[in-house]
Amino acid sequence: MGTMHYLLLCAVIFLPETPAFPIQPRPESWSSIDLERIKGYLDTFFPILAETQHLSIEERIKEMQKFFHLTVTGKLDKETEEIMTMPRCGMPDEGGHQTSPETRKWEKTHLTYKILSYTQDLPRKKVDDAIRRALMVWSDVTPLQFRRVDSGRADIEIRFARRAHGDGSPFDGRGKILAHAFLPGKRRSGDAHFDDDEKWSDVNQDINLFLVAAHEFGHSLGLTHSSDRGSLMYPYYSYQNPKTFTLPEEDKRRIQKLYGKKPSNS
Ligand SMILES: [Zn+2]
Ligand SMILES: [Zn+2]
Q1: 84 CA distance to ligand 1 centroid (A)?
Q2: What is the pLDDT of residues 110-143, one digit of tens each?
Q3: Distance 8 CA to ligand 1 centre (A)
Q4: Residue 90 alpha carbon to ligand 1 centre in Å
Q5: Can 36 be counted among the known catalytic residues?
Q6: What is the pTM of this model?
Q7: Most exposed residue of 18, 64, 81, 133, measured as fewest CB within 10 angstroms of its CB?
Q8: For 223, phi and psi rounded to 5 degrees?
């Protein structure tokens, strides 16, 4: 809040020497806390790549603002602050700098999944159901089929975990990062992890498990984030009724580009 106020002051009233105004740092020299916060956010979600390593912090903020269709200011303004604190997926957004245009996908259509651990927030049956329906979001529009297994290895291994949980991407307690998943073709390919410090629900309260799981399985199948606010693969959580949920056109087009349409006779 304080940040926004002095940004406005500096922009509108350019009288830094006037004693009536408390002396505030110029936007170019943010407090070290703000700088650390924005850097932390960018390093997590817009990691520095070969093409972006020369960019200044302002330029990196601009890249992020462009991705989210915010006003491109290169500054830590109110809109940017807000988006940084909203609950979201832990996977990076990558912006327009995807190094490898190679697509990652499964080379088979019949995939197995396994639920390794549960949350205490919901009865097991409700977790099973949310996971099954979240996978159906994708199998309804592609030739993909999912089968649950209880022993041995599975293509998509699902678990709830807190903080550091052995994959180098620790969760962060309640809020902000809700879950993450691994794209096909690499280590832990397809696996999806849910932050158990969140409060999970099957209704419009706290964080709806079905909606987050449907998003995460998009990653498990090879989709990266979309900057389209209306898409399921948009990185931020927003509630909609799971009972009337239909996969937005953009996500449908993207997943069908990878796997094709669902055969009409199945
Ligand atoms: Zn995501
Ligand atoms: Zn994980």
Answers
A1: 15
A2: 999 999 999 999 999 999 999 999 999 999 999 9
A3: 33
A4: 6
A5: no
A6: 0.86
A7: 18
A8: -90, 140
